[in-house]
Amino acid sequence: MSDASLSTLAAQLAAKQVSSRELAQVYLDRIAALNPAINAFITVDPDKTLLEAAGADVRIAAGNAGPLTGIPVAHKDIFCTDGWLTTCGSKMLSNFVAPYDATVIERFKAAGMPSLGKTNMDEFAMGSSNETSYFGAVKNPWNLAYVPGGSSGGAAACVAARMAPAATGTDTGGSIRQPAALTGITGLKPTYGLVSRYGMIAFASSLDQAGPMALSAEDCALLLNAMTGFDPRDSTSLEREKEDYTRDLEKPLAGLRVGLPREFFAEGLNNEVAAAVDAAVAELKKLGATPVEISLANSKLAIPVYYVLAPAEASSNLSRFDGVRYGYRAPDYANLDDMYCKTRAQGFGAEVKRRILIGAYVLSHGYYDAYYLQAQKIRRLIADDFSEAFKTCDVILGPTAPGTAFKLGEKSDDPVEMYLNDLYTIPANLAGLPGMSLPCGFDTKGLPIGLQLVGNYFSEAKMLNVAHQYQRATDWHAHAPEGLK
Amino acid sequence: MSLSTDDIKRIARLARIETSDAEAAATQAQLNNIFGLIATMQAVDTAGIAPMAHAQEVYQRLRDDAVTESDRHTTFQAVAPAVENGLYLVPKVIE
């Protein structure tokens, strides 16, 4: 049952073959058995989950069920969840019980999806391995000596290990797509502005976007239907008609032009990943698609640009953590200023502090033009490359990450080495474009390989169509880690 | 460009993060590596390019000046480190 698609689970719930409470219990039992080794969850509260599931059962019995009612979901610990500990992976919020729901949480509650708990993540979503969490690293279900990617590492690992049928994630520079790739699941980062950021703890506000993580593109489409929509409480939320993201899933791919950015297949790409991505292109050709070579010439600047803009925005966003209104406060201090300095020194981990310092520096007097403004100008060049590319192709395809999962500890002492993991995912964030990752093979170590699709603005339905057709023709997404039954 | 430990301590001061000399020294090498990575963008000619602050060309919406939230200060202050009579307590700043 834990391998079932969301539509299968929904059909079983509708046919009364299983109740929402029973279904939640199946996943809670798996969490109890597997989470001690994987550490994908920061908070699990079976009583709360089962209470919400009982509510879903009432809705189903009354004939008020929607397409996802009764199916449990795990939420990244970046989303404020009323009455639940919401830590953002940080000591700074290790005692913070959120007094309200993020819009994403509210929407999933309205859809009737019980929460299975709060998933582990890199501290304040800053990381690509889930090793910066105050609550310890998450282990990759495919091999516990390897990282699951990050920052939505707990979300990815809990879906990969079938501890949850669906999870929420957030993606600022690849935090949904890279862990999805490293754990062999499907994850989608929507067009910036499609999903409300209200109640989602801010990292880099001009880049942060929430999205679904699940076992297939079809499941992601159903989850995206529940997540998106205008929210007046988020000033960057876009006022658009609601879409049905499942509408194009069954469309044939004949005539589809798939853009292959030459820069994504150059130096730095692991051979096994390259071969798996090439095989995926061949598969799409069999389905009627035509590959088109494109260039994203400025994408090589995406990492430098990102490591100016994201820390700049983060240093500003994280200034709110001062030990006054919520969260951690240092136990001893001499005066107010000392209280701020000690609270922040003790409450933040090393990577978060590094990024705050970078941000404070690039925004400081005398450096703003050379760094921040220059980065914003190159951001436009990167976005313009995509606009140009979409004149000759319908969807862009490439690897999600330059390699497969790496060992715990392997890159944690070298920030620059860690940052290079997001080489192929960051450009879509800078441009605000939707992107997704889906499994397309395994390396010789048995670790999953991720295929990335990037679409034009608001073309989620098309990306999901391509991904779904690929997943009908292949079974990479159906593989489950051994030894976790 | 290379940051000195004094630079690190100055930025840490701006960011209100207490940093010892040993921490500043450890951070110095890492930040200099990161700024080495960032430096590759300095050579790009961006004359005449408008900065892109945001992914979408949208304007801030205005809303009616109406009360939309209820008073929940007790709930919100329940998660504060120190509160008295509805006020957040901090060390004395005015003698």
Question: Would you kindly provide a brief summary of this structure?
Answer:
Chain A is built from 15 helices and eleven strands. By secondary structure, chain A is of the alpha/beta class. In chain A, strands 4-6-5-10-11-9-7-8 form an eight-stranded mixed beta sheet. In chain A, strands 1-3-2 form a three-stranded mixed beta sheet.
Features of this protein?
A: alpha/beta; Amidase signature (AS) enzymes; three-stranded mixed beta sheet; about 10% strand; B: about 100 residues; mainly alpha; two-stranded antiparallel ribbon; 2 strands; flat
H/E element order of chain B: HHHEE
Distance between the termini of chain B: 43 Å
How many strand segments of chain B? 2
Give the class of chain A from helix and strand content and strand pairing: alpha/beta
Report the sheet-strand fraction of chain B: under 5%
Mean of the pLDDT scores of chain A? Answer: 97
What characteristic shape of chain A results from the CA principal axes? globular
* Level-1 CATH class name of the domain at 6-254 in chain A: Alpha Beta
Q: Let me know the CATH homologous superfamily of the domain at 6-254 in chain A.
A: Amidase signature (AS) domain
Helix content of chain B: 25-40%
**N- and C-termini, Cα separation of chain A:** 11 Å
Number of helices of chain A: 15
Question: What's the story with the biggest beta sheet of chain B?
Answer: 2 strands, antiparallel
